[in-house]
Design goal:
elongated, single chain, mainly alpha
């Protein structure tokens, strides 16, 4: 599987499960985040898989 498809698949899975697990917002105040929580989780999983 090409790398770009792998990253997209990771993101779609994270986004799907994130909607199920997180029922209320994690952030309430402060500046608007530049990245969403699923995007950050996807980057962390990608980093973990590359270094594995």
């Amino acid at each position: 599987m090409p790398i770009d498809e792998f990253i997209i698949n990771i993101y779609l899975m994270v986004e799907q499960y994130y909607k199920i697990v997180v029922t209320k917002p994690l952030r309430g105040a402060g500046y608007a985040p530049k990245l969403s929580d699923p995007e950050i989780i996807c980057m962390e999983l990608w980093n973990w898989s590359v270094n594995f």
